Amino acid sequence: VKKIAILTSGGDSQGMNAAVRAVVRSAIFHGIEVYGVQRGYQGLLNNDIFSMDIRSVGDIIQRGGTILQSARCLEFKTLEGQQKGAAILRERGIDGLIVIGGDGSYQGAAKLSALGIKTMGLPGTIDNDISFTDYTIGFDTAVNVVVDAINKLRDTMSSHERSSVVEVMGRHCGDIALHAGLASGAETILIPEVPYDLNEVADRMRQNFEHGKRHSIVIVSEGVGRGEDVADALKERYPSIDPRVTVLGHIQRGGSPTPFDRNLASRLGDFAVRKLIEGDSNKACGVINGQLVATDIEKVVKTKKDFNMEMYELAQRLSQ
Ligand code: ADP
């Protein structure tokens, strides 16, 4: 490859900027021209593409969001849209594209690869719902946001002897709830991967209160439903429980990325560039047990991420 482009797509996540910076600087280091595509696949179809240099990615490693902006684009899901995108890149002499995003964005990259553009996907989503990587870019920061919020809730809860239901993001993957739940000592973690019974949850909460527990946190992944509904169901069973509900929402997608996310993004961005230089295509980059890996996009999008049951059971054992 001689010229590559980079775009961010789907939901944004903290660390996307660090990945963009790594791609741009690594490409230039290797003597490759690099272009930014504004607003994801929509920007590609609008030919909203500009040349990037070393300085264009200065002062962004610490910023949340994405300077390239993101968008959803229905047209790109059609073959005509994909052909138009490939043609626009080809006209500019761009033969490689790095896409930072989630599952949907990966599928777009696979389609472009089939049309002759060399593509690499980087996992950019706070949900950690992508297989063949232990972590996605943004996940660690999101977990930090949740833990920080729960620390604050704990202060006021112990003053009032209350329980709290905290709803966090994660549509198909409970990793934010699981990791933040273990780190913040949540009593109950409700996630899509593990069936639960609200009668048991309520009984346990009541027993724990009777045994002197003065505050309890129920963390609910949005994939299992609304925190408000969980709180109502608990209160219906035992009116004395009466939890406060906090919905963290998009706050979880914001803020300065943690060093972990910046370093993950930097390593993956550089890796994706090197893979393109090797002539590889249609791969999703990830890190497994600390090692950088590139896996066929088709395999990644059709494999559900492994769930860490051991960690879930540990969280349960420690939350008596
Ligand atoms: P994410 O990448 O976070 O999963 P989306 O599912 O919204 O987010 O996908 C982002 C964009 O990727 C979509 O707006 C669309 O342009 C493109 N995309 C999604 N699925 C496909 C697909 N099957 N084929 C081609 N492009 C797709």
Automatic annotation (TrEMBL):
Cofactor(s) the record lists: Mg(2+)
Matching Pfam families: PFK
Similarity section: Belongs to the phosphofructokinase type A (PFKA) family. ATP-dependent PFK group I subfamily. Prokaryotic clade 'B1' sub-subfamily.
Top-level lineage group: Bacteria
Gene: pfkA
Residues engaged in binding ADP: R21, A22, V23, V24, R25, R154, G185, A186, E187, K213, R214, H215
SUBUNIT field: Homotetramer.
Residues given in the record as Mg(2+) binding sites: D103
Catalytic activity: beta-D-fructose 6-phosphate + ATP = beta-D-fructose 1,6-bisphosphate + ADP + H(+)
Entry keyword Chaperone: no
Cell compartments where the protein resides: Cytoplasm
InterPro entries (UniProt xref): ATP_PFK, ATP_PFK_prok-type, PFKA_ATP_prok, Phosphofructokinase_CS, Phosphofructokinase_dom, PKF_sf
EC number: 2.7.1.11
Residue ranges of every copy of the Phosphofructokinase domain listed in the record: 3-274
Major location category of this protein: cytoplasm
Keywords, alphabetical: Allosteric enzyme, ATP-binding, Cytoplasm, Glycolysis, Kinase, Magnesium, Metal-binding, Nucleotide-binding, Transferase
Protein name as catalogued: ATP-dependent 6-phosphofructokinase
